[in-house]
Write a structure and sequence with these properties.
InterPro entries: RmlC-like_jellyroll, RmlC_Cupin_sf. By secondary structure, this protein is mainly β. About 0% of the residues lie in helices and about 50% in strands. It is globular and about 40 Å long.
Length: about 100
């Protein structure tokens, strides 16, 4: 995890995270308070009905519901870049996701 800016304790600073999702990992539909960009490095992840693989870029706008998310059979490695470090995930009802 790396915060962008002069003060790495500033929770509002942009945040970069490298994530490794194991094979078959899944999470329910949710949203984030801020925008974020996800760059797939290896493996694949399915978001709703769309599957993303190496080199794909996904942009999620704050407040937009999506999911569920499922890692592929080889898992998924991705870089996530959050507009701010307090863009925490909030669960949604399945009917709210795309």
């Amino acid at each position: 995890m790396y915060r962008i800016g002069p003060d790495d304790a500033d929770e509002r600073a942009p945040l970069v995270v490298k994530m490794s999702f194991p094979a078959g990992w899944a999470t329910a539909a949710h949203t984030h308070t801020d925008d974020y960009t996800e760059i797939i490095l290896a493996g694949e992840i399915t978001v709703g009905r769309t599957t993303y693989g190496p080199g794909d870029v996904r942009v999620a706008h704050g407040g937009t519901g999506y999911g569920p998310l499922r890692a592929g059979p080889d898992g998924c490695e991705a870089i996530l870049i959050f507009k701010s470090g307090d863009g925490l995930a909030k669960p949604l009802r399945a009917s709210d996701a795309n």
